[in-house]
């Protein structure tokens, strides 16, 4: 069995992976909150897509790759199969998106939450082991079945909690606290799965195919940076409930000011004086004022 080191660079890679998972979780929770406030199916789909990218792409997959930078096997180089690596990204985003669609359509119930958590958790576990299968090294990968099952269970529980938080948490402090908890859950699942891994040497070694970590690091970091910036911009540019209320008030006020003035109707004439009086009508002379002689 070959020696494995999960923390080749010390605390740097786990700290960065935890920071990425917290950041992605916080953005995902905010985007999920916009799903509940959306007024149309198109808006719900848009915010669901952004939440899936934040949770699946940043909080889960980017965290996984950052943690893998600290993974090393003694006496072997490590390369990555690019198509399988890209497939692991798609699995993470799609599984989270489907989980959000399950719990976000209709009234939230225990059945929907369990179904969404089970599907998303299975997808997260599939993402993890697909990413591990993308590794190319001078050895054969082996897994302890008990720890693999434990990692899948952790993934399902973490996904269920994450979906519940995404549908219920609204305030800023609660979102921050929930993101910290979700970061612990995501990292716990990752390192539980990594503890199940063992590497056995090949009978014969050959040239490794695939991309080196340094070749994947730059495009992945750029994708994460632009993704986070895009998420923040989308959140800042989207109108809030206060903005909608203010716009509705201004529209109503403008409509009231732009409408023509209404001519008031004459007051009722109960005794019919207007009909009998000829005073002030055309051709009717005004009565003359005769001077009274005081003598």
From TrEMBL:
The keyword Nucleus does not apply. The lineage of its organism: Bacteria, Bacillati, Actinomycetota, Actinomycetes, Micromonosporales. Residues 9-200 form the MHYT domain. Residues 258-295 are annotated as: Disordered. The keyword Membrane applies. This is Signal protein. Pfam families: MHYT (PF03707). The chain crosses the membrane at residues 12-33, 45-72, 84-103, 110-128, 148-166, 173-193, 213-236. InterPro entries: MHYT_dom (IPR005330). Keywords: Membrane, Transmembrane, Transmembrane helix.
